[in-house]
Amino acid sequence: MSHLYDRHKAVIPDWVALYYQRPIEITHGEGRHVWDADGNRYLDFFGGILTTMTAHALPEVTKAVSEQAGRIIHSSTLYLNRPMVELAERIAALSGIPDARVFFTTSGTEANDTALLLATGHRRSNQILAMRNSYHGRSFSTVSITGNRSWSPTSLSPLQTLYVHGGVRTRGPYAHLSDAQFIEACVADLEDLLGHTRDVAALIAEPIQGVGGFTSPPDGLYAAFREVLDRHGILWIADEVQTGWGRTGDHFWGWQAHAGNGPPDILTFAKGIGNGMSVGGVVARAEIMNSLDANSISTFGGSPVTMAAGSANLAYLLEHDLQGNARRVGGLLLERMRGIGASVPAVREVRGRGLMLGIELVRPGTDEADPQAAAAVLEAARESGLLIGKGGGHNTSALRVAPPLSLTVAEAEEGASILEHALRSV
Questions:
Q1: Which residue of 132, 264, 341, 357 has the fewest CB atoms within a 10 Å radius of its CB?
Q2: Are strands 202-205 and 127-131 parallel, antiparallel or unpaired?
Q3: How far apart are CA 11 and CA 9, in angstroms?
Q4: Could you tell me how far CA 401 lies from the centroid of its own chain?
Q5: Do 115 and 270 meet the contact criterion of CB atoms below 8 Å apart?
Q6: What is the 8-class DSSP label of residue 238?
Q7: How far apart are CA 6 and CA 208, in angstroms?
Q8: Torsion 318-319-324-329 (CA) sign
Q9: Tens digit of pLDDT for each residue in 76-126?
Q10: Residues 6+ apart with CB under 8 A from 154
Q11: Which residue has the higher pLDDT, 396 or 116?
Q12: What is the DSSP string of 170-236?
C-alpha cells in the first residue's frame, strides 16, 4: 500500500485529501461492507461520501449497467435517449415542482453550477444569497458561494455572494433562542440584508449542511425565508445533493421539512441516485429551465449507462421503502449515539435525521472545537473495522455518519458499539 501511496503523491495534486495516516485502497464491496487491498473488512458508514445510497454491488444496479453497456455506452444529448427520458420522468414526478424539467449533469458541483447559471440568467443578476457554513462544490462558481473557509481556495468569484444566518442551530449569535425566536431572528437578518443589496437572483441552501457537519436549522426556516424571497422575486435553490432520495427518513427531499410555502424553484441532486455512478442534475419549473437563450448540451450528463443505473437504483429504493428504513434504523442509531454522547465529555452534540448523523467533538469542559480528537476517532474507528467521515465549520471537528439506506438494525448496533469504543479511547 505504501508503494501505491508514493505513486499517488507523485501524480495527484497535494490538495486532493486522503483519509487516514495510512491511506487505504478499497478494492470491493458488498451490501454495507467494503474490503481493502490488505483483505481487511469494514462496515461502511460513509458510503463514498453519501454516494453508495442503497448498497455496494447491488445486483439490480450492476445488472442494469452491464446490460446497457452491452448495447451502447454513449450517445450525448444530441440524440434521443430513452433511459434519460425515463429517469427524468420519474424524477420530475417525485420532485414536487410543478411543470418540472430535468437536466442531467455528472456531479453535484456541476448541478449547482447549472442552477446558478439558470437563476442568474433568469433574474438578470449575479447576486446570490448563501448560508454560512455551507458547501456547494469545487468549481469556480460553487466555491464562491461556499460558506466554509476550509473548502474555499479562492476569494475570486463571478458572483457577489452574501451570507445569511440560519444553517447552524446550536452555534452563532442566535443559538440561545427558542426555535421560533431563532427563525424570527434569521428572517429579520434576511430582511435587513436585502435592504442593503441590489436585486438578488437566488438563495441556495442545503436543508442539512453536509460538509458543514450535518447541521441544520429548525424545521420551517426556509418556508419563512420563502415569504421574504417571494416578495422580492428571489428564487430558492434547494441543494439536495446529500439530503435527497429519502436519506433524512422523515422526507423524500430535505426541503419538505420547510414546505409551508411550497417547493423550491430549483432543486439540485447527485450522489445517491447513481449509487456510485456519475449522476447529478437539476430540476426546475419550465419557465426557469427554458429561459436560457443560447444552445446547450451535455456530453456526458444523461449517459445511457448512468441513467440505467439511476433508474434501477431508484426503483430498488422505492420498492424496498429505504426511506422508511432510514427513518426507523436511523432513529434507533441516533438515540443510541445520543446515549453514548451523554457520557463522553468530548461530545458536544449528536444531531441529524434519518441516516445522516453528526457527532460534534470539543475539548472537554469547553465549547472549543477539537479537530485533533475528530481525526483520532476516525483512525480508531477504522482500526476497529468502521469507516466514517468528518466535517465541520470553523474547524473540522464533527464526525459524519451516513451508511447506505439498507442498513440493518444489527449493523447499526455494531457500528454504534465501534464508535462508542473509538470515542472512549480518545
A1: 132
A2: parallel
A3: 6
A4: 12
A5: no
A6: E
A7: 37
A8: negative
A9: 999 999 999 999 999 999 999 999 999 999 999 999 999 999 999 999 999
A10: 140, 143, 144
A11: 116
A12: SSSTTTTS-HHHHHHHHHHHHHHHHTTSS---EEEE-SSBTTTTSB---TTHHHHHHHHHHHHT-EE
